[in-house]
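Here is a protein:
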Amino acid sequence: MRYEEVNEEMVEMFLNVLEKKFPSYQYLTFKLLLDSKRRISKGKIVLASVELANEKIKFFSKDKVAVEGYDYIFIMDQKAWELSNSKDRERIISHELRHVFVDEKGACKLIGHEIEDFYAEIEANKDDPEWGRRLAILVHDVYEQEKDMKKGDEI
């Protein structure tokens, strides 16, 4: 399976970031998933993403946590999670939560970057402005090493 449930550590960290930085979104429901396959968008590796759940996903995602289905799907690259430190994990979660938006009518939406990032994230990450690029290179390199190892096994 490409997607897996996340562990308690990730759930706890996600909820802590949500409570600390995005308290007005605590009523929203997020399905957290790990993705074991590399995703590339616009030539860059995707460390994580957040998606808006459509009506069909909401229907199929009903459970004890989200009795009406989840509002958003948060997908973390499994290698990015494994290779990142605690601070970088929080940065990824925070970044993705900045895409979440609820309009004046209460409708869930997604918003894009203000620039290549979010102004608030630039300010919050002044201590390590290259964290995302550093982690993306590391994750990419690990995927490439695995690919090369597979090729070697096939010979």
Residues 131-154 form the longest helix (24 residues). The longest strand covers residues 30-35. Helices lie at 8-21, 55-60, 78-83, 86-97, 119-124, 131-154. The CA atoms of residues 42 and 148 lie 23 Å apart.
